[in-house]
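quick q for whoever's on today - can somebody do inverse folding on this one?? i tried earlier but teh output was garbage lol. tokens:
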């Protein structure tokens, strides 16, 4: 009897439970049949028209038109299929470029539901009348999306807030679609000629898990608070405060952010803000998420990013987030460095480590293909790199070679493409690598952790030989960032070389200076010429002296501890 009662309502599950959902609808087959008929009407019509294009030889000429129709069909089918379309827009290994371009435009917007229902949900969830929670609330929603809608209001204590209210019966709608998708996956996965890389039913389950996380506003509140902790003390990033007392699984109350959208350069300039500075803040904060914290905002579309009046980048909507492991962060740094050095063999190895290629893949024929794609995007200079060019060409490459896009990297790719698009809307000449490379190069040179120092050594030494040109490249690129100061970095480097951990490096550097039976004074002179005009000799001596002093203090502490 208890099991029977537990299956009466989908509200009893908080996280995605495919077995629960399957058994729930097993007792309600008419709902599956009804949904199937509706989906077949829309999707079936689309596929029949596409088949007719193929039979009449008009497939290529009509492809762009069909891509628009697919976007419209997914929008009509509702929240789950809108999310499916957004997910497919990040998968160049599954979808041809012409369809990718259209699915990227897929807007997560639907008409709002009625206000009386929304207010009833707020009162039911928070357990008190509206006038005992808010001093003021907008008569109508200020924004509506596939999962919910947002009201503008003020708490009784005066704080200006945004109130997110989830659509009624959303969990039921999504659960029904997920059940249908999994049934279709089981029936047809053996017939689909897609480069999926792994079981299609597992992909549906993974998608369902993420979707359930997104519709639980308690998760979003947790994500926002974690994101805020990561950027605590950052003067350029603003995260809205969460009001837990006035939030629940279906209602989220958070600080209202006043600002202008990043897609409007005139509005930004009218606010007295510098578009170039906003671009740099956006790119650097994105890199910090990926390479420092490992916890990143996976949906930075124009509606989720604002420029505040005081010149900060404000993030909102933390429903779609993901976490990277430490090893993955290290390999990402390594991959960027391989691009700097145009070492495509090492880049292919990194692709294996990141899961883009299986471990048993023969990377020999893939290396020249990578070189062709990336060298085209890099152009004559590193600063000519364009991320969108990479994704476009890569979408063709994955159909020729056994690439697959791990789910985390599908989100990362979506995030990077979106951020680059936002930046280009403010500055048509923007090059993402002009900001990315100096940041990565600076992190390498600072050697903030043993893992980063190890990556730097891997870059500087190849086949046992010191790579002078690579060090020149890294220093030159790092110096292109105005905020990069070489002196503190030099001090850290001296401390590391003199430390016990740097003993091996000391020997290698001495050997590098006399490598091939000659003294490499020319290389040292070139390195000095990179920064001699930007520093003062007395600062350099003080950096060396401070390094020696700190090194001596550390050794003294170790000796005293040993006693």
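ok took a stab at it. sequence:
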């Amino acid at each position: 009897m208890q099991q029977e009662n537990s299956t009466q309502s989908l509200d009893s599950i908080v996280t995605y439970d495919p077995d629960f959902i399957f058994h729930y609808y097993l007792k309600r087959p008419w709902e599956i049949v009804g949904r199937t008929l509706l989906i077949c009407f829309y999707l079936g019509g689309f596929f029949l028209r596409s088949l007719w294009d193929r039979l009449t030889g008009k497939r290529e000429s009509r492809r762009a038109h069909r891509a628009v129709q697919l976007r419209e069909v997914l929008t009509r089918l509702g929240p789950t299929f809108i999310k499916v379309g957004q997910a497919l827009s990040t998968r160049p290994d599954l979808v041809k470029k012409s369809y990718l371009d259209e699915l990227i435009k897929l807007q997560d917007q639907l008409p709002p539901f009625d206000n009386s229902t929304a207010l009833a949900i707020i009162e039911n969830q928070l357990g008190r009348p509206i006038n005992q929670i808010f001093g003021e609330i907008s008569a109508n929603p200020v924004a509506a999306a596939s999962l919910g809608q947002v009201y503008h209001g003020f708490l009784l204590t005066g704080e200006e807030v945004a109130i997110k209210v989830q659509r009624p019966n959303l969990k039921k709608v999504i659960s029904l679609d997920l059940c249908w998708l999994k049934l279709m996956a089981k029936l047809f996965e053996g017939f689909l000629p897609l480069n999926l890389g792994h079981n299609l039913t597992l992909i549906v389950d993974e998608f369902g898990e993420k979707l359930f996380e997104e519709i639980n506003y308690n998760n979003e509140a947790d994500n926002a608070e974690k994101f805020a902790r990561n950027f605590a003390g950052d003067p350029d990033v603003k995260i809205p405060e969460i009001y837990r007392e006035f939030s629940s699984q279906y209602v989220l109350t958070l600080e209202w952010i006043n600002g202008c959208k990043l897609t409007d350069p005139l509005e930004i300039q009218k606010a007295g803000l510098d578009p170039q500075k906003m671009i740099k803040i956006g790119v650097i904060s994105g890199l910090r998420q990926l390479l420092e914290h490992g916890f990143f905002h996976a949906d930075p579309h124009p509606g989720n990013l604002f420029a505040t009046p005081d010149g900060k980048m404000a993030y909102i909507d933390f429903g779609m987030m993901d976490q990277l492991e430490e090893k993955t962060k290290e390999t990402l740094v390594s991959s960027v460095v391989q691009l700097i050095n145009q070492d495509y063999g090492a880049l292919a190895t990194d692709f294996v480590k990141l899961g883009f290629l299986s471990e048993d893949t023969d990377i020999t024929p893939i290396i020249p293909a990578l070189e062709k794609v990336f060298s085209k995007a890099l152009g004559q200079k590193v600063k000519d790199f364009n991320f969108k060019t990479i994704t476009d060409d890569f979408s063709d490459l994955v159909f020729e070679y056994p690439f697959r896009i791990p789910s985390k990297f599908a989100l990362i790719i979506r995030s990077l493409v979106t951020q680059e698009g936002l930046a280009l809307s403010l500055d048509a000449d923007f090059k993402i690598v002009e900001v990315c490379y100096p940041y990565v190069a600076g992190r390498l040179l600072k050697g903030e952790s043993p893992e980063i120092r190890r990556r730097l050594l891997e870059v500087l030494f190849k086949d046992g030989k010191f790579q002078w040109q690579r060090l020149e490249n890294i220093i030159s690129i790092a110096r292109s960032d105005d905020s990069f100061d070489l002196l503190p970095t030099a001090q850290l480097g001296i401390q590391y070389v003199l430390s016990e951990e740097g003993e091996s490096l000391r020997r290698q550097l001495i050997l590098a200076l006399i490598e091939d039976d000659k003294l490499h004074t020319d290389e040292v002179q070139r390195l000095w010429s990179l920064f001699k005009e930007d520093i003062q000799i007395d600062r350099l001596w003080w950096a060396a002296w401070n390094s020696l002093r700190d090194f001596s203090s550390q050794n003294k502490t170790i000796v005293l501890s040993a006693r």
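fwiw Residues 1-7, 554-563 have pLDDT under 50 and may be disordered. also Residues 187 and 260 are 48 Å apart (CA to CA). so keep that in mind when u check it
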